[in-house]
């Protein structure tokens, strides 16, 4: 159990229209993550992730690791720097050169801070060639920082110059094998997003500078998104709209479609042998910092963070009485620690708000803004026999329960979430 006073969380208030480190505040996820002390800008497009954001991101990484390992993917780590000559050979250096961050060492050798690693993977495969057909297919993946020299970084973590990304690469003898693995990774992606309970949609998309024969974007509908989807409310068929175009009748069922803004959180490609002839490759990416911010953008209110349950930095916070109050006599620090330990046994990771000099109301407002899924408050009802505790949940729901019922409620709530995920996963 963690004490809130020991968590590095520099909370601030951002006045309307203010800029932080010359960065304009343009969306609610950016504003809330800054105000709640989860991220801090260092310069335009670059951010420091503070402990609570890093904790949520680690949980997201663990989900991605598990879902990829389940389909046989093997983790590797490639250098952030890739030789410019590899990008020259693939032809991408000229095509996307303005978006690349480039460096040069003391020997005048040129490198790129990689936004993606297709060239590096192809170079690795050529180094270990020839590959035996018995080795194929296989999937390699990594999670690491990527870089893009965005012309106008904005929306905080949604469009930054440095971002955490999962990138995976599958290697095959032919296109049929690549398509089979592509379906397998699609299954893994859906497991990731279903565990997060996010309505991410897969849509066909152009391959662009990446090239290849097949491409899909994974889009999360959200009001501040810069992409646009046409969604059929009848059959759920979804297409990606070009900027400025309007929706029409659904090609799958003939019904009128609805238009919504969305955020791209992943992209997958069947590349063919463009980078690796005669070997056939496919590649897969999920922007993890972007997905984290996009989920907050979708779920949060204008005033309070809300997380996918699986990503909440801590599952619960216990708020005790103000020191010196009547309630404090029966719920002092040792007893609050005991209560916190009991909650932790059923809820998972718990924070104890040990700032007992502050009022309950003050601490409750901050806890709600930070987005703890369960907020347990020792208020006036804690003086009853037996003591009853307030349980504050999302969207203002408040229950007042004795301890045994409180613990049972949290335990059952978590079990129901797990069962729902298992039922949904059966129909992928």
Cα-atom Rg, whole angstroms? 24 Å
Structural class: alpha+beta
Write down how many β-strands occur, each being a DSSP E stretch of 2 or more residues: 22
Molecular shape: elongated
What characterizes the major β-sheet? 9 strands, mixed
Percentage of residues in DSSP E strands: 25-35%
Multimerization status? single chain
Summarize the structure in short.
It contains 11 helices and 22 strands. The chain is α+β, with helices and mostly antiparallel strands.
What is this structure's SSE topology?
Blueprint: E1 2-3, E2 19-20, E3 23-24, H1 28-35, E4 39-43, E5 46-49, H2 51-70, E6 74-75, E7 81-83, H3 84-90, H4 92-95, E8 101-104, E9 110-113, H5 118-128, E10 138-147, E11 162-172, H6 175-195, E12 201-204, E13 214-221, E14 227-231, E15 238-241, E16 258-272, E17 280-287, H7 288-299, E18 316-319, H8 326-330, H9 333-347, E19 350-353, H10 360-370, E20 374-377, E21 388-392, E22 398-402, H11 403-425
Parallel strand pairs: 1-19, 6-10, 18-19, 18-20
Antiparallel strand pairs: 2-3, 4-5, 7-9, 8-9, 10-11, 11-17, 12-13, 13-16, 14-15, 14-16, 16-17, 20-21, 21-22
